[in-house]
Amino acid sequence: MSAEAAVVRRFVHRLGPVAWAHAAAPGVAGARTWHYWWHAHLLHAFSDAQEHRPDPRRARLQRELHRGVTLRTLGRWTTPFYDDVAWMTLALQRYDLGDRRIERLVRRLADAIDPAVGALPWAVGSSLYNAPANSPAAIALAWTARRGVAVDLDAWVAATLDDAGTGLVRDGVEHGAVRPELWTYNQGVAIGSALALAETAPDADSRDAHLSRAAGLVDAVERWCAPDDGLFPAAGGGDGGLFAGILARYLAEAAASFSDGPTDDEQRAVAESARRLVRVNAEALWEGRRGDLFPADPRQAARADGDDLDLSVQLGAWITLEADVAASVTG
Which residues of 32-60 are buried (b: 16+ CB within 10 A; e: fewer)? Predict the structure, then answer.
C-alpha cells in the first residue's frame, strides 16, 4: 500500500461532500483533534500527488478537504498563528494560483509584519519572530505583487537567524535573544524562499544571488547530515513529524532548479546533493515501514504505537516519498 493510500485510509474521514483528517490513529489520546497546520500540508501533499499521478478520485477528495477547512474555519481560512497562515497560503498556491482566498491570506501576512523588527511574529501578540513564520511567508509573497516584501523577509532571516559556524538557519529570536535550535523544516523553507525569489527575480544578478543562497543552504544541510550518512535529524511526533518531510520537499525543488536549463558543474553538484539527500531519506523510510506504517525516525523500524501513529509522521513520510518522485524526474 502506498503512503498516500495509508494516510487516507487511517486518518481521512468523509461526510457527504466534506472531508477532514484526524490527528492520530483510533485509540490514541486526542486522536480526533483537527489541526489547521497539518491540514495545510495534507492539502499540499495531495497537490503533489495529483501532479505526479493524476486521478479524478483524488481531485474529488481534494475538493472535499477544502470544504472541510472552510467549515472548520467558518469560511475565513485563517488562524491567529502567522506561520500556520503562511503554510496554508502555500497549499492554496500549490492547488490554484487563481484562488481568491490567496490574496486575503497574503494581505494578512503582509499587514502583520512588525516594522520595528522587519519580520512577522509567530502569532498575534507574540514576541517570537521565527523562521517557520517568515520563510514560508516569503515564499508565498514572492508569487504576488508583494515580492519586495518577500525579499525583505528573506534578508531578515539570513541576517538574523543564519548561524555563521554551520551555515544553517536557527529557529527564531525572542526578546532580542536568538533561539539556537536547528530544525530540519527551517532549512527547508529557507531553501524554498531563496528558490522562489530566484524564480521571480527581475534580473540575472538578483537571480544568481538568491540561487547562491539556496546552494549554500543545501551544502550546509549536506554537511549537517553527513555524520549520519545523509539521514535527517528526527523530531519525533506531533508537529515534529512534518519537519523532515518539509526539508525533503524543498530539497526536491532545489534539485529541479539547479538542473533546469544550462547548468555548470557547480550547479549540477548542488542538484545532485539535493537529490541524494532526498533519496537516502526516502529509501530509509521505505525500508523502515511495517505494513502501511512508516517510522518517525528513519533509523528505526515503524511501530504500531507512540509517535508513529500520528498523522504528522505518516504525512511527513508521504511528503518525503513525493519529494523523491519529484527529484527523480529531474535526475
Answer: eeebbbbbbbbbbbbbbbbeeeeeeebee
